[in-house]
Every structure is written in structure tokens, then in C-alpha cells.
Amino acid sequence: MNPSDPITAPPNTTKHCAMDTREVVNLLADIAGQVESILGEKGAISVFRYAGAQLGKRLGESHPNGTEDDARELIAKFFHDKEFMDAVGLQGHEATLSGCKIGLVLQERGITAGKHALCNFGFGLIDGTVKAVTGKKIITLHVESEYHAEGITCKETW
Amino acid sequence: MRAEMLTSILSDLNGSSADIEASAVVSTDGLMMAALLPGGMDEDRVGAMSAALLSLGDRTARELARGTLEQVLIKGANGYILMTYAGTDAVLTVMAKSQAKLGLIFLDVKRAAESLSKVI
After folding, report:
1. Exposed, middle or buried: residue A106 (CB in 10 Å: 0-12, 13-18, 19+)?
2. Would the N or C end of chain B have less CB density within 10 A of its end CB?
């Protein structure tokens, strides 16, 4: 085999599975960890939060002049579709994220949920989506995390 | 109320020298607290950059055995950007003209950072 030849799968093999949610979150946590090792904890938080807000703006672009309820639905659908959460409850200025896979992976690494760069990516995502949909600037903050047998439930407010 | 006090301190700082063009105070997480920036400058982006740069400077100073970080100074063809802590939870970012007298700017920025930290 020539070293310059591309590496391909053997013939007649099919790809069964890429990565499950837990593996994706683990990879994201590894990336965040390396960013944090250079930028520092607060630096990584600020960059991930900003990145989340930019993605949120893109997410909300398709629903301009919408209401806060429209924005909430978009956010809940995003988290649920990506399987990062089992359920997202939204009431008034509070969000309850049940079965958070990000929190679970962080817990396995001995990191408290709600203060990590990946959590701040999520907070930025909420901020950016609400801004794009309603034009209103909000700042999402972590309230508390509950650890129970079924997983982690995080509560946020803005 | 506190936001107005922070803006007032920034306003005094910007007025202390004709060479200071803009200033902002940002939480160490990158969230904007108060800003007097030129139109067209994205506050959220300035906030994220300021927090990231100061955090990177802090880590670099410590890992390369330079001790506790005092300030981060960036010099471009059109002027300076100076960042310093305002207490433990905030960053003061100042933009100055290229011909600015840095000694005076450092002094004014230090005083403003102390005032901001008292309010925060």
C-alpha cells in the first residue's frame, strides 16, 4: 500500500454506528477540557458561552418577530432532537432540563454541573435563540442541579 | 443603579484622557456589565474576547513563572487595548490611541479598576 493512498473501509463492509450521545458528550468534554487547559476556566466559559449564543442566533433566524414561547419551543426541540436531554420543561423565566447527558458525563468526571464550559454553551444557546426570535436580550443563569437515580435535573433562569 | 455607577466610572475614565477611545467592564465569565464602546462594536464579542484574553494571560503568567497577572496589553497599528482585573470577578478593557502616553493611561486605568471593584 502506498502511504499516500487514502484509508478506506474494507470492501463489502457497512458502517453500523457512529457515536452515541454519551460518546459525543465525552468528546465535547475532552475538547472543552483542552480549551480550558490553555485559556483557563473562565476563558473557556466565556468562549463557549459566546459560541452557544452564535449558534442560538442561527437557530432563531428562521423565526424572527416571534414570541418567547416560540423561542422556548425551538430550544426545547434542539436539546431533545440532539438527545442531550430527556425532557425540557419551560415555565415563565425558568427552564428545567431533565436527564441531562452533559451533566451526567461531567458528574462522572467529578465536575459540578452548571458551571462548566459545556453548560455555558447551552446557556449561550438559550440567550442567542431568544435574542434572534424576540429581539430581547436575556442572560441565562444556572440555579441548581438535582442528582437522582434517573439522572440529573438542572434548573436555569433568565 | 449599580450599572449606572459602573457607566459613570467608565465615563470619567474616558474623559480623563483624549487618548482613551473606549472602555468596558465585563464579568470574568465574559458577560457585559457596562460599556462605552464605539457604535458598531459588538458588546457580546468584546466581552467574550476580554474575558478569554485576561484568563489566557493569567494562566500564561502563572505557568511561565511571571507571577500574578497585572495587565494584558495589545498593541496594534491603530492603538492599544489594555485589560486588567477590576476586583476578582470583573475585567476592565480600555482602548487607547496609538500616540497615547501609556504611563498616564496605566495610572488612570488602575484608579478606575479600583473604583469599579468597590462598586462590584
Report:
1. buried
2. N
Q: How large is the ipTM?
A: 0.90
- Give the number of domains in chain B: 1
- Asked if A47 is an interface residue toward chain B (Cβ–Cβ < 8 A), one would say yes
CATH number at residue B68: 3.30.450.30
Nearest to B48 among A40, A47, A139 (CB): A47
Cα nearest neighbour of A44 on chain B: B52
Report the SS3 class of residue B22: strand
Instruction: Please report, for residues A12, A16, A95, A126, B38, the alpha-carbon distance to residue A7 in angstroms, rounded to integers and kept in the order given.
Output: 15, 18, 45, 40, 52
Which residues contact residue A79 at a Cβ distance below 8 angstroms, ignoring those fewer than 6 apart?
A: A85, A88, A97, A122
Entry pTM: 0.88
Which span out of A36-40, A89-93, A153-157 was modeled with the highest average pLDDT? A36-40
The CA distance from A72 to A76, in Å, is 6
Q: What is the pLDDT of residues A108-138, one digit of tens each?
A: 999 988 889 999 999 999 999 999 999 999 8
- Alpha helices, DSSP H only, in chain A? 21-39, 41-60, 68-81, 101-108, 117-134
Instruction: Write out the residue range of the structural domain in which residue B100 sits.
Output: 2-119
Size of interface A-B (CB pairs under 8 A): 51
Q: Residue A127: which of B111, B76, B47, B100 has the closest Cα?
A: B47
Residue B68 buriedness (CB in 10 A; 0-12 / 13-18 / 19+) = exposed
Residue holding cell 465585563? B26
Q: Which three cell numbers stand for residue A1?
A: 500500500
List of chain A residues whose C-beta atoms are within 8 Å of the C-beta of residue B29? 42, 45-46, 49, 120
- Asked if B29 lies within 8 A of A139 by C-beta distance, the reply is no
